[in-house]
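Hi there, hope your week has been kind to you so far. No rush at all, and the record is pasted right below.
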Amino acid sequence: MLVEFAAWAGIIGLAATLVFGIREWTRRKKAGELVRVRFLVGRSLDRLPGLVEGSTDSLPLGDRVGMLRTVGPGFDMWQDLADLGLGSEGTPSDEVLLDHFTSGFEDYVSQPLREADLERSEIGNHLVVRFLRDRGVPIAELGEVIAWGEPCEGPGYSTRFIPRQPWLVMLAIEPISDTPITVTEVTGRVDGGSSGKSEVRSRIAFSPVPIDRSEAILIPLGVILPPFPSPEEEFEREWDDWMETGHYRRLGDLRVDATQSDYQPIQPIVTPDRVKFNAGDKQHSVGVHRLDPTSVLALDTFWVAGTCPHLFERSVDGTVRHVREIIPDGSDGWVEDFYLPSVDCVEIIIAELEFEVTLLQRVEQSGVNLLGPTTLRRGESVEVKVLPAEPIRSVGRYSLTHDVGATSGVLFKIAVVEEFLSRLRRGAGGRTDSVEGERVGLASVGDEAALRRAPG
């Protein structure tokens, strides 16, 4: 009898455990159906002044109204950045032009910042440099000095200082059902708080204010630094468009050749792990996954401006390198461009990577016309077989497809060039026509009249 009772007690206990587990699983499932928790990372400080004042219009929240929590160590870090003037109009927070030279190399090169560079006021007094130095970032990791051949701005090249950009990190809590929720608490930890040590547990309490699916709670978590030097990125675009403000906007999957540990938090930094909330008469909680900046859904919004089409060389071993921009000043009419290929060059690639249409009338070498009338639109390129170390003459022009309000600067040029090179390595360079000798490329019918008016 006693043995039989013990056996049934065990079965009853197991049944109770299963029921409890099913209830817990159901509750967790329902919690995930009620709210979405995600990280938002701002890779530019342009929106910082508005954010610290509580404006969330610039965030990718769709039709939601964002409610920014303007207290806590994460927000205090944002406020420190804003108090320096970072992000304010007329205050540089990214690249700074140093010098322009009328001769020299044409390709992009860079070097880490050196102690001697800090003697230049444009660098030593740069607001990002001051912010990072105050927080112990080594000089060599503060940024880089780059040189970039810029024939569109005249012959030669310019040198620029590119600081390592702080990224703003926040947590977004968004109801996704018709049931309003009341967020009661966010738990996690704060590293490098007032004591300078990691607080094992931290609680962020909330006033019991219900929010619905038209709203979102935003919690500033602090600032992180991306890897340095910048790793290679691949952007798989889902859609893009041109905004009335003159900005270009794109959405897609961003993949970065780095690891999570390459991203350096600036303390204090908040690391959340759970969000607790009420829905109706029930309490719920959802876990917060670890932030992984190497694999995210990214929304990029930035100014762009037309520049020249880009010239690349393919060498005997198949290596492709960016040479420079081609047909400088071609936005004002037909121009000539002269270029001497390297001794191991077997092919050149002319690519239109920006918001322009490029018209090439001819590309010739040693008296042979290698390329006839060709039109290239954004994302298109043409490959031309050439002789090494023999001068090439090109005739062409380009026109903008949109009115632009500002220039995105050299960083945008570098980004589009690197993205194109990455596509070439994967064998996905967009529409690429290959021509050799007297073969000609593809010219759109609507451009034929303009092409016939080009110089021979």
The longest strand covers residues 215-225. Confidence is low (pLDDT under 50) at residues 1-29, 429-456. The chain has seven helices and 26 strands.
